[in-house]
Amino acid sequence: MGELIVASTGKRAIRFGICQRCLSTNVRTFTCHHGSCAYCRNCLYLGRVCRCDYLEERDIATPAETTELTMPFELAPAQTRVASQLLTWWDERKTGLVHAVCGAGKTEMTFPVIERVVNEGKRVLIVSPRRDVAIEWVERLEHAFTVPVTRRYGGGEKASIGMITVATAPLLMNLRHVFDYVLVDESDAFPFAFDVALWNTIRRAGRGVFLFITATPTMWQKTFPTIHLSRRYHGFDLPVPTLVKQSDERILDFCQRHISKPRLLFVPTKPDLERYEAQLRETGVTCRTVSADTEERLETLDWLQETKGVVLATSIWERGMTVRDVQVAVIESEHRLFTTRGLIQMAGRAGRKPDAPTGEVCFFYEERTFRQDQAIRAIKEANRR
Prior knowledge:
Layout: E1 2-7, E2 11-12, E3 14-15, E4 18-19, E5 27-32, E6 35-40, E7 54-58, H1 77-91, E8 96-100, H2 106-109, H3 111-119, E9 124-128, H4 131-144, E10 149-152, E11 164-168, E12 175-176, E13 181-185, H5 196-205, E14 210-214, E15 226-229, E16 242-245, H6 248-257, E17 263-266, H7 270-282, E18 287-290, H8 297-307, E19 310-313, E20 327-330, H9 340-347, E21 361-365, H10 370-384
Parallel strand pairs: 8-14, 8-15, 9-11, 9-13, 10-11, 13-14, 16-21, 17-19, 17-20, 18-19, 20-21
Antiparallel strand pairs: 1-7, 1-12, 2-7, 3-4, 5-6
Helix pairs in contact: 1-3, 9-10
């Protein structure tokens, strides 16, 4: 077990058209010092490997440590039920799925099983879909556990592996059979949903025991043993979206109606950010924009909370962000980029705090779609459970 590194001996880095570091078949031809040779483009950011290179394993694990858990708050009865099930699955070495609604407090429910795994001398990996979500995991883990948390994402440490590691999937590509317990947060999110190579990477980094956590699981994830949590930890219902025929006047009315609260407006694409930002600024509304290219997303999150302003965002913010008392609108909710799972996650940004458990969620539309109705029906069904 360990990290695959380029060495003078070992096994060939590319065999039968497959990169042995990341298991990708995305190889090309270029001229290296050995002549015409294939190299892997999928993991190029880890350093170039070509057919004339060799890979060997290097153990980068630190010595085993025990930890003590300090829970940040007492778990609600429903959360305790889920935490107990996770401990049972670990004792039985079973892979499972936690199907919990948005804002259910999924992070803290995993702390008891993380403590048990670590105190048995085993290593835990938390895989996050994005760097900003990974940072939030690290902050909560460091407050709860006494062992240091290894950061394996952009800007983190990559030279060693501790008892608890938080990572984004691409930076696991050169690890093999290191982690005894692998927790995949938001396991249906981009890029997990579309990249088979990433799932091969995650599978190879672990040792067979996985936990998937999401509010919107895919069909294949539902084949695993599943525990449901249909209520948020504060006990209030999920806000149910309303459907509103879209117009510039109604979008402006939404912003003005909640002028004393943070407002989050989702749009389908980056060009839409510029278009709707210009429209809002013409009416005197101060706003900021967030997309995958926005580096200061955490700063924008703080600005939204502090100023009670307006943020236009692509679906990059459909998960992993919490703002107290935020009011949510989805513009052009019929757009093909807005899936049923995505609409559910966007609606789940509202009402997440116990001192602000409600909020308006508005699906603006130019035409009605099955996805909109399916998302609303799924939220209502969760409230009835």
